Amino acid sequence: MNAIARYFDFDTLGTNWRTESVAGLTTFLSMAYILFVNPAVLSLASVPDAAGLGMPRDAVFTATAVAAAFGSLVMGLLACYPIAQAPGMGLNAFFAFSVVLGMGIEWQTALAGTFVSGLIFMALTVSRLRERVINAIPNELKHAVAAGIGLFIAFIGLTNAGIIVNDDALLVGLAPLTDPQTLLAIFGLIVTVILMTLRLSSAIFLGMAITAIVGMLTGLIALPDQIISPVPDISPVAGAAISRLPELFTPQMAVVIGTMLFVDFFDSAGTLMGVARQAGLIRDNKLPRAGRALFADALATTASGLIGTSSTTAYIESASGVAAGGRSGFTAVVVGVLFLLALFFSPLLAVVTQAVTAPALIVVGVLMAASLRHIAWDRFETAVPAFLTVLLMPLTYSIATGIALGFIVYPITMAAARRHREIHPLMLVLAVIFLGYFVFLRA
Fold first, then answer.
1. Keyword set for this entry (predicted)?
2. Residue 417 placed within a domain
3. Does the reported pTM lie above 0.85?
């Protein structure tokens, strides 16, 4: 035990076993919603016409827990940070709705893309290209991507809840709000918003639990046959990516892999810096062991493609564990162990309906949309590409389209503002690639 305490540097960090364990439990409860939301998203359960296109839900539940456990353990043991990892919101939406549903790419091939994006992430991390890539993308577009994904996720949540529906005259419209399932989702949203406003660390998870309980009490959700059961078979998704690797050598998959890499890379870097700063681990405005932390993230993404789920990334919910006193990698290790224990609670998937998951999607969207405050809206040359990125993700139902249009417009507006010297050559290359994407692949 003393050796473990020394490895995680408890004395220097001023922490102990009890504090780290409580912090790990707090972080787990804050992000446990992903165990149920991720299978719902990747299975395309909310899309009536997508039968057979989505991934098998039970197998994805197992893959989600295993990927989260692996990612959290690697982050805790390798980088020694109190930051947990799991399949990321936004990345799973891109995987399911943009790649599989929008582009018509089979999920097995999309998993292969996840695997390769992780390998590229690892290569960037161990090389000096990491800083160059980070510095090449303007901050306005980084924040716009995060906010746009937030709006996209919230839009999915609103449609899953039955609040927003198709309207032949207006494209979309507000539903009558009389359907019992929709009312249950609205109840869940109100509860979750109240819990979030009260600053409860596990608000999203508790909101889902309360909504599910109310749904069962009112007969809107059937009672589960059991609570604990054997771990669902992961074989339908595990390793499915390997046989599809030869299918990745297409311009379309290049765009998919590039988008996965971009979102994962910058989301991870931002989360790591934010949580580490809250924990007081930043030194001279730099993140110690940054290379190890990003490598742990990249390794988790690579493993995700093999395990059978979308990209795994660092979770901002780790901040709740830091607030509870977590300072070392042991916090993340505790989270990893708890995700492994969660494997035996798969019967609860039956009570986590769209009405239960929709409020979580909407609230996560709100949290991601907070990035809008970092965009300099008074500078028109950067506000326009940022605005198009944010707006077009939900309107086109495609994260890739929003990113592509923003990256194409950015060099144009910057050149018009006579700020062409500030455009990084990589941005010009990306603009040309995305322009070719529209001309040749979406024509």
1. Cell membrane, Dipeptidase, Hydrolase, Membrane, Protease, Transmembrane, Transmembrane helix, Transport
2. no
3. yes
